[in-house]
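step 4 of 6: structure.
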Amino acid sequence: MNARIGRLFLVLAVGLVALIGMTTYWQVWARGALEARQSNVRLVYRDLEVDRGAIVTADGVVLADSVPGRLDGRDVFLRRYPEKGLAAQLVGYSSLLAGRAGLERALDPELTGATSDLAGVRNAFDRMRGDTVRGDDVVLRLVAEAQQAAMDGLRAAGGTGSVVVIDPSNGGLLVMASTPTFDPNDGLAGALEAPGSPLLNRATQGLYPPGSTFKVVTAASALDNGVVEVSTEFPAGACIETGGQELCNFNGKDPGEHDFGYALVNSVNTTMASVGIELGEERLEETMAAFGFFKRVPWDYPADQNLASGIYNRRGNQVRPGANVDEARLAIGQERLLATPLQMALVAAAVANGGQVPQPQPVLEVRAPDGTVMRRPGAAFLGRAMTTETAAQLRLLMRQVVDEGTGGAANVEGLDVAGKTGTAETGDDGLNDAWFIGFAPASAPRYAVAVLVERTAGTGGDVAAPIAADVLRALSGS
Amino acid sequence: MSAYLRLPERNRELALLALALVITTAGFAAVQIARAEAFAWSPLIAAALFALAYGAAHVALRLYLPDADPYVLPITAVLAAIGLIEIHRIDPDLARDQGLWIALGLGLFVAVAVAFRDIRRLESLRYTCGALAVLLLLATIVVGTEVNGARLWIRVAGLQIQPGEFAKILLVVFLAGYLRERREVLAAPARRVLGIGIPALRHALPLLILTGAALVLLVAMNDLGSSLLLFAIALSMVYVATGRLLYVGAGLGLFALGGLAALQIAPQVQTRIDGWLDPWPDEQGSAYQIAQSIYTIADGGVAGAGFGRGLILGANGDTIIPYAETDFIYSVIANEMGLLGAAAVVLLYLLLAWRGFRIATQADDGFSKLLASGLAVAVAFQAFVIVGGVVRLLPLTGLTLPFVSYGGSSVTANFAIAALLLCISQRANRERT
């Protein structure tokens, strides 16, 4: 029997030694690959050991910072969002369970001090010595007071919507508001279930028919291409026929004989549609592309939270330019044309900036823990959307919209606001997406704004324009 | 009195136990330093109580089993200490319970050592043991409570008992007695079919029925691990008794068939097998445990994070791997003690198995040989199956790591096994010297 007992032991010994072999495989051979796997939750826990930099607004309000804590016997840093939902979608979150989004994700290398410059080297030494790695602080261009005015205005207007304000001269992102919002301190479980998709950044992920605000793009194209001049005369009439269908003015109104400037200021659909037909699809889409349509706006923000404005088919896929659309309806912002509030703010900013489209820039400066400025981004431009002359003409016309047209509610005493309203029917009876895009002061613009209120009974002039006024008032301090 | 002090086997045991105490104290201190904000007496008290309980067991061996193997008790001491330290690191409250179980286990150890210091007494109880084993398992099915889809526990007076752990020992006793009795007829059967010897049904039937019943019961409890363990024990013992590989082959065939059937009946088994073959597609879902186990093991590296310094608990205070203190204690050890520590733990089981089989070879009666072999397989194969599961060498099963995992039934039952091995060793050594 003893020989058999010996053989049995041998079999078991082989099995037990195989366990050591397998353990060795994981701990020595496969270790590196496993540590690098994105789904390895240990990566996230390791990140908690970094003293992640703060995110602060231009006027000194802390939007995100890190506080020391203890987790399973180790020192960690926990993320805090003192202003809760003030700019929750823009700032995003850095969470153990939900990962990262928004600027927390886009600026992660700087916030964790993992950039490839000197700071990166310094931090690599800290890590080797076992010292705490400190990330850089980011100061945003955002103005907290104006952001608050935007959030309040959207909430008062009925709930869902977005406000974007850009400095037209350098692209500085002064306001990016989206409602409903959420409190990132509470985790995301509640926000995921909440009505109105609060996690969605409507400024960059919300696609809406731009309605009449798009007439600014049509007008820029028409003037640039010499199809019309501001003084070109157009005939009277409430409706025209296009593509076998009637296209009529708002409320079936007949404007009488009028010039092109009047048509833009008073949002005459029939005239803008005729101009669209004359322009043709190709030239109009060329101008759109110059404004930034058809591709994601390139800026410091996660690509999957940044949708392209353009023409979408019924399945929600973007249609490429030259896809043979009805240019008459495209010219007045219909024909399944969808735009983000950020894109429409860029349209206003291009007019305000003499035709140059500024690139949105959320960051004022990046500061090392010792206060050294690591980076201060300068102005960058996405290209020219129209000539300086065209821009100057549109500035005057858009000033008239606020001065004597549909945008009166956007006016701020002493600020000379210019703009264009838009009211796009949603297809649900009586519910519109209400727009206002504009800039101020009209003579030397410092702010370019886009306001969108989703699914409201009011028009752009009633609902969106007053919010723009509130935000511009907060920005200019008047 | 002085006779009790001049025992070479026991003196060696005492020296090894002292070494185990050093490891225990150092381990507790390491966890304390790594994790606590303030000094606390509790780990030192735990180490002192640990020493006291093992001291008492050692004294009992001096009195009742003076010539028994000196390595078995110290090996269990190191294993139990490592388990206790890691459980303390996960949750001090669980460690308090586990300390109690170890003390209780050592109490059972002494009781078994005293009761069966003449191991032949046990042989006459073989059928009682067999019946009791089946009864225990039946009771689990009838009045048992279900935890995580497996019906393994009975609630008695507020305590959850896992009868399977004890039924395992009773079945080994039964098989040892039974096989000792029928060894000759099973090994050299009178009938031959197609040139292959087939034992008479009346000789093999009780064996088949009991083993089969135990397996059916375990499959009914949805516990693949115990089922696999019992089968391995039965096959090993039949092989040692008869030396006929035919039985082993037939047994393996039967188990393969049973496994295929289990796949049809229990979807949980299929999930486990999918997670074993490739855990990554569903690592957030059904393969979460095994994936986290692998991450935890890999994270330890060669040297380990150190006692109390690994990343074991998540943000919510729970362990990142569910059931880290029971099924996945080896992953925690591999993380904090590294490859060196994990390999040491596996080698301790190898050492324990070696002592068990050595006791089996030294014993001079068939019952003792079979019993010692069966018990050695029970401990070593259980360690193999559960560790194999958490390192993805085998499909994951819900077995405990003997002496190390949290759990009263497991700890006390394994101490009873250690005591039985020492009883057999005492008899063998006494007759040798």
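step 5 of 6: annotate
 - The CA atoms of residues 151 and 221 of chain B lie 5 Å apart.
 - Chain B touches chain A through 56 residues (CB under 8 Å).
step 6 of 6: archive
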